[in-house]
Write a structure and sequence with these properties.
By secondary structure, the protein is of the alpha/beta class. It is built from 13 helices and ten strands.
Length: 355
């Protein structure tokens, strides 16, 4: 099994869901090249400009707590092997494997599109979720600053916003987020899956160190921004033993709430995850998959509304019991964080702002 330094996926294969040709890393070629030319060079990240016609995506899922979202990027350089968004890259005729984390798309027109959509007289405000399909603070945000531009518009219009990220880069925007929080307009969730650096490096190879993420929680909380910690996904026999300690550290950093989801393996994520297990945890790969299947009705993944986010059976029940006991112990989830939608002011045209 070939592993690529600094990348999560161990292969670049696809399924036939969209009739795409299968693409794989050729391990024999890599071995031969290393003998002739030296170590295999790292895969470089490429960025393509994407020009969508709209930027707000709506959903009607009954088990997701929001009905609209924004993504300024497609694909994610963090390379989290478990990412349920990987299959979306197949819509670009690219692989959900290595392509997802190396061939990225940026949407620089997203802020202008957002302003236009919020200006529609028929628009009705409700919390917009950011970070649902790709991390808004992945490394390329440092240059493109699309996320910041989107937040600037939402702050200007007093529009409610939720952010989910596993990057401490979010603290860059505290100057925008803190005033929004004072008006009940924003909440931030920071994802911390494992405190073990070795596990984190293989699970999320290009995401910031877990301690940097906890430091970000502390800074956000100190600025008065309601902050969650997501310990999703919980992976049996790899990260599940850390649940209580993660929640203790989250509370100690100032988080007010936490949540978790048992690992999900939709579509192409399942074979990618299995290959990752074989490469990094061959000693327990069978146990991990057997436990996942026990929580997913005997399959690698359960796509059903209601159960897909929770899991079923004794293993899922045990996770939930441990989670809630730890939350009570550390004072998490004591109060519901509700955002306000009644402060929304549609964007004003340039002439109106001069009056």
């Amino acid at each position: 099994m070939v592993t690529i330094s600094g990348r999560g996926a161990t292969e670049n294969s696809t399924s036939s869901r969209f009739g795409l040709p299968e693409r794989e890393v050729d391990g024999d070629w890599l071995d031969e090249r290393e003998e002739i030319d030296g170590p295999v060079p790292k895969l470089q990240t490429t960025i393509t400009v994407l020009k969508p016609k709209t930027t707000i995506t709506y959903n009607r899922s009954p088990d997701i707590g929001f009905d609209r979202s924004i993504n300024g990027f497609s694909g994610c350089e963090h390379g989290c092997i478990y990412c349920f968004a990987r299959p979306t890259h197949a819509y670009h005729d690219l692989s959900p494997g290595l392509d997802f984390e190396t061939r990225l798309f940026a949407k620089p027109d997203a802020p202008a599109l957002l302003r236009a959509e919020l200006s529609n007289p028929r628009y009705r405000a409700a919390p917009i979720a950011m970070g649902t399909n790709t991390d808004p603070y992945q490394p390329i945000e440092g240059k493109w600053r699309i996320t910041r531009a989107l937040i600037e518009i939402l702050a200007e219009t007093r529009h409610p916003l939720t952010i989910t990220t596993k990057s401490d880069r979010v603290v860059r925007d505290i100057d925008l987020l803190a005033p929004m929080a004072a008006e009940g307009l924003v909440a931030v969730a920071v994802s911390v899956t494992s405190l073990d650096p070795a596990i984190a490096r293989t699970l999320e190879p290009r995401a910031p160190h877990p301690e940097r993420r906890l430091a970000a929680v502390e800074k956000l909380a100190a600025a008065g921004i309601p902050t969650y910690v997501s310990i999703s996904p919980v992976i049996p026999a790899i990260t599940d033993h850390e649940m209580e300690h993660l929640l203790e550290r989250a509370a100690g950093a100032g988080a007010k709430a936490a949540f978790f989801i048992p690992v999900r393996l939709p579509h192409e994520v399942a074979p990618l995850f299995r290959a990752w297990l074989d490469a990094h945890f061959p000693d327990r790969a069978g146990k991990v998959m057997a436990t996942i299947q026990a929580m997913r009705g005997g399959r690698d993944n359960d796509p059903q509304f209601g159960s897909r986010m929770r899991g079923t059976g004794p293993w899922a029940d045990l996770m939930r019991t441990r989670f809630w006991i730890a939350c009570r112990k550390y004072g998490l989830n004591q109060q519901r964080i509700a955002l306000r939608s009644d402060r929304f002011l549609p964007p004003q045209g340039a002439q109106l702002r001069l009056l």
